[in-house]
Amino acid sequence: MKKVSFKNLNGQGITMAAVLHVPADFDDGKRYPAVVVSHPGGGVKEQTAGLYAKKLAEHGLVAIAFDRSYQGESTGEPRQLENPHISTEDVSAVIDYLTTLPYVDNDRIGTMGICAGAGYSANAAINDRRIKALGMVSAVNIGQMFRNGWDGSVKDADALPYIEAGSQARTADAGNSALATMPLAPLKEEDAPNAELRGAWEYYHTPRCEHPNAPGFTLARCLTQIITYDAYFKAEAFLTQPILAVAGSNAGSKWMSDDLIARAASKDKTLHVVEGADHMDLYDVPKYVDEAVSQLAPFFSTKL
To answer: Of 209, 145, 216, 210, which Cα lies nearest the Cα of 186?
Structure first.
């Protein structure tokens, strides 16, 4: 593996940071299928995205985990911005970079992500025909999650106060150096509403997988983009690539994987349910990650 950086050509003036993993028997005279791995909301490439990239490389794939614009070691101001439209574009920006590598087969590029990164990967696959296969782990459509709740029980219209809050945050931010923030996962153990989301606190804020570049919050102003965003917009028409979604049987977020599988136009789409796992288990619990990879690696090897 090696750390790389490259310019994002999407007009934001961002230099993106990534970690590139290659197979153990790598030969730069050959051409390989490649997979772009996108991290969860609030995460960075050194956490679960890097873990999955490493394991995919062990199965003969070139895999790249990256930090989204404004996050991790990628550049951009203000820091910790989570604009979903830019986050989707970031996936295509990484593909731009891969196409410059002589050992990557441009006709065999896939994408996958974990949590919000899976939603962004799906949105990128809808928009970018260079993506030939889509993998998803504990998928979250970040717009759905924020407006409909973790379990999908909130009506769209009832999320209007969040748009109001985001709008007010933008006004408060104007002329201020300290921008208003909001958590993407519980920042304190006592803030977790249930055991599953306690796992999110534990993952990001204890030695389980904490990282100094992953503070676990974003900017409140992002609500004006997030609430109205649909990572699966027009999937019914344009998401025709092969899809493999992996979700835990006990995951409160599983309904968002179900939704994508139901909506996608693809005729080759599979939901693999990992029995006994919840949303966070698929980030780093070895037996659950290994089961996910046992599905994802042959999926990409076959479809790419």
So the answer is: 216
d(CA 304, CA 285) in angstroms, rounded, equals 27
Pick from 226, 243, 16: nearest CA to 116: 226
User: CA–CA separation, 297 vs 60, rounded Å?
Assistant: 9
Task: State the Cα angle at 42 between 40 and 43, rounded to 5°.
Answer: 60
Listed residue (138, 122, 139, 142) closest to 241, CA to CA: 122
Residues 91 and 66 sit within 8 Å (Cβ to Cβ): no
Residue 4's beta-bridge partner residues? 18
Helix (H) or strand (E) holding 104: strand 104-114
Cα atoms found within 13 Å of the Cα of residue 74, Cβ hemisphere only: 34
Pairing mode, if any, of strands 131-137 and 104-114?
parallel
Distance separating alpha carbons of residues 131 and 266, to the nearest angstrom:
13
Half-sphere exposure of 139 (CA within 13 A, CB side): 32
62-66, strands of its sheet edge to edge: 2-7, 15-21, 62-66, 32-38, 104-114, 131-137, 243-248, 269-274
Residues 6+ apart with CB under 8 A from 136: 112, 113, 118, 121, 122, 243, 244, 245, 246, 247, 257, 260
pLDDT in tens, the chain (304 residues): 999 999 999 888 999 999 999 999 999 999 999 999 999 999 999 999 999 999 999 999 999 999 999 999 999 999 999 999 999 999 999 999 999 999 999 999 999 999 999 999 999 999 999 999 999 999 999 999 999 999 999 999 999 999 999 999 999 999 888 999 999 999 999 999 999 999 999 999 999 999 999 999 999 999 999 999 999 999 999 999 999 999 999 999 999 999 999 999 999 999 999 999 999 999 999 999 999 999 999 999 999 9
